Amino acid sequence: MTEENIGALIEGAYDAAIDGCWYEWLEQLRLQMGACGGFLAHMWGTTTLPIACGDDIHRNHLERYLSVRNNDPWYQTASNQHNRLVSVDEQLSQQRIQSNIEGLWLNLQSHFHIGSVLSNTSGESILTLHRRPQLGDFSPEQLESLSLLIEHLRSALALTQLLFEQVEQRLQQQGLLNAAIPQAVVRANGIPAYMNHAMKSYLSQATNIVLRQGRMETAEPMVNRLIQQAQLRACDERRRESRLPLDGLQLMLSPLDETVLANAALWQIQPHN
Fold first, then answer.
1. 124 φ, ψ to 5°?
2. Quick one: pLDDT band at residue 195, thresholds 50, 70, 90?
3. Which CATH number characterizes residue 226's domain?
4. Tens of pLDDT along 198-257?
5. How confident is the model at residue 105, as a pLDDT?
6. Core-most of 64, 146, 205, 243, by most CB within 10 Å?
7. Do the domain assignments include residue 169?
8. C-alpha distances in angstroms, 128 versus 2, 104, 118, 125, 174?
9. Secondary structure of the chain: what % helix, strand, coil (to 5)?
10. 8 Å CB contact between 60 and 204
11. Domain presence at residue 48
12. Are residues 260 and 185 in contact, defined by beta-carbon separation less than 8 angstroms?
């Protein structure tokens, strides 16, 4: 990886802290590292909505892994070496084979695996990349480049959490917080800057609306189009709220004052009246 590429990834991480485009950043990192796939998971609170890149990580496999990650010898090692790059060496590989999470990695056909557990005052994040056996291991130069990125990534993720907390505080000041229903503040690009616990729990189980590549969307193209139009009205044209049916519920998109977050809308999932 060239110095120019490293610089672009560092700058991109700080940009993602503001615009939320972590999927695009992670995909660029994957390509630069020659990896088959990977994921970035922000472990804040009891529910996480990880972002995966590549085409070989199924959502169910990833969520299953995160729920049992404490049984993974790699995670045990990395969590004791916060903010450092840890590779799955021969010893960790053998320990993983003997653990109850090995099947998850067999599903990924993953052999060469690197990553880091990033820690800050708000919690931890997990970054991993992997290769299939036929591609060979990551080179020493690639590992060195990724090590240089780790500290910048940690700082950028801290900014993401800071924005989350600021948006939550501003919603509270305006009397808009409602812990009883799923709520999210969603940027014009469809990427949430804030979600309450109810929304995280809803998305972790829902099929009618999901977080795909970091963006809120549904499996129905027509519904997606209606949501995009409502989002445009709320963010750009700042018109009145929109209400869309959602499998017996309703999705309400409301304009937000720029003091909460510029070019964003408040999404709320409510019972259908």
1. -135, 160
2. very high
3. 3.30.450.20
4. 998 888 887 788 888 888 888 788 888 998 889 988 887 666 788 888 888 899 999 999
5. 65
6. 146
7. no
8. 21, 14, 11, 10, 38
9. 45, 25, 30
10. no
11. yes
12. yes
Residue 55, Cβ neighbours under 10 Å: how many? 8
- Strand ranges inside the chain, DSSP E: 37-43, 51-54, 86-87, 112-120, 123-131, 183-187, 192-195, 210-212, 215-217, 242-246, 249-255, 264-271
Q: Residue 194: beta bridge partners? A: 185
Tell me what pLDDT residue 64 has. 81
Domain boundary among 112, 132, 164: 164
d(CA 73, CA 144): 23
What's the structural domain count of the chain? 2
What pTM does this model have? 0.89
221 Cβ contact list (under 8 Å, min separation 6): none
Domain holding 80, by residue range, is 3-164
Amino acid identity for residue 155 in this structure: S
CA distances from 189 to 68, 117, 228 (A): 32, 28, 9
Domain limit, last residue, from 111, 132, 164: 164
